[in-house]
Specification:
three-stranded antiparallel β-sheet; alpha+beta; 398 residues; Alpha-Beta Plaits; globular
């Protein structure tokens, strides 16, 4: 029987829940808002399937990064509506053109992040763009298995632990399965996300959410939320707009993407409320179980300056022969160039390494259900408002 005694050893992938044949396992939220398996001993038949399906307990096959490219979608429309360079759209379009199925993260009607699947291009947009919240896998592993056994081509997209969870659950190589993961920073608490939305907005009035809006360019992205009345968040107070009226546009952009950016994104980037397992992730680098990994080509001017594009540039790593063969099928839709591994890792350190927990993490979770999230996040990250303003101005003068 699976027992969670150390939460840093459970990534919440849901493989154990999906594989349980006696319905003894449910995924339940803990006090931090993360899902963990809970076993009903009355239903458990002690078959051991859950233990064998766990990607953390199971020894994973080492993978090898065969090739690395900086790449962007030749379709500018798709590139613009994607988080980075539009790699996911190209891969998904190829699978759908071959009558396949694509799994990925989507919002539900409450703006919670859940995994789901699509079988046509008209639905592709619900899976596009990064969603910086741990998605609820639900029954998608079982659904993917059913499609695979019916000889459908499947592209499964998720975090490294989610793709590893699927493969552990399947416990079999399917030639018609392609797995793609992301360069994962960490996954923040779904409950914190829910409280943030409830405290700042009427959830039913939200029209759209974009964690990486490209209004000011891909490399100056920010969390943007639009309401049904067309009000846009974040916004600058009127007195700030007046004060900065005659200042360079760059200053207003820095205010919106920095000092006045929405608090949830700030806390996420600082790993203030990431899942415990993210601080000791066992599925980095050579332990990735995906065929392809995608991320942002950060510090592009030092790696491949000729590739810069304000609409977004991705880095794509091919981790298996299957991934390499898939890349050959889609490369005519890309502008791409080979990238040096060491340079890529230097500016994308979380490809290999786990992010450390913020020192204020425990204090945050002790207080997040009784205090204003905006105030709590800003206080733990930056101190009082006047101090944040001082530090912002100081940084502008450097």
């Amino acid at each position: 029987m699976l027992k969670i005694t150390d939460k840093s050893k459970c990534c919440g992938c849901g493989a154990c829940y999906n594989i349980c044949t006696s319905n003894a396992i449910t995924m339940q939220e803990d006090n931090e808002g993360f899902l963990y398996p809970v076993i009903n001993a009355n239903f458990c038949i002690k078959c051991g399937l859950c233990i064998n399906a766990c990607p953390i307990l199971k020894k994973q096959k080492d993978s090898e990064t065969l090739e690395i490219y900086g790449a962007k979608n030749k379709n500018i429309k798709e590139q613009k509506i994607s988080t980075s360079g539009g790699m996911f759209s190209i891969l998904a379009n190829y699978i759908l053109d071959n009558n396949g199925i694509v799994f990925g993260a989507s919002y539900n009607e409450k703006w919670e992040v859940v995994h789901t699947y699509i079988d046509n291009k008209n639905s592709l947009d619900i899976l596009r763009r990064s969603k910086y919240v741990q998605s609820n896998i639900g029954n998608t592993y079982k659904q993917a298995k059913e499609f695979l056994e019916n000889n459908k081509i499947v592209l499964f997209c998720g975090t490294p632990c989610q793709t590893a969870g699927l493969k552990s659950f399947l416990n079999k190589d399917f030639s018609n399965l392609y797995c793609m993961d992301i360069f994962c920073h960490s996954v923040p608490s779904p409950k914190v996300w829910k409280i943030f939305l409830e405290q700042n907005f009427n959830i039913s009035n939200i029209s759209s959410i974009d964690f990486r809006s490209k209004d000011f360019g891909w490399d100056k992205s920010y969390l943007k939320i639009i309401l049904k009345n067309n009000k846009v968040y974040p916004y600058l107070p009127i007195y700030i707009k007046l004060i900065t009226l005659f200042f360079p546009e760059k200053l207003r952009i820095k205010l919106l993407t920095g000092l006045y950016s929405l608090s949830f994104r700030k806390g996420f980037l600082s790993a203030l409320y990431s899942r415990p397992s993210c601080h000791n992730c066992s599925l980095k680098g050579k332990h990735k179980q995906s065929d392809i990994s995608i991320g942002d080509l950060w510090r592009i001017f030092e790696i491949a300056p000729q590739m810069y594009d304000k609409n977004g540039v991705s880095v794509i790593t091919l981790n298996s022969l299957k991934g390499t063969l898939l890349f050959e099928q889609i490369k005519n839709n890309l502008t791409f160039t080979k990238i040096n591994f060491d340079k890529m890792v230097k500016y994308n350190p979380y490809f290999l390494n786990s992010i450390g927990a913020h020192p204020g993490r425990r204090e945050f979770f002790d207080s997040y259900q009784t205090e204003s999230l905006n105030d709590l996040i800003n206080r733990l990250l930056y101190g009082p408002f006047f101090k944040r303003c001082f530090n912002f101005l100081k940084n502008q003068l450097k």
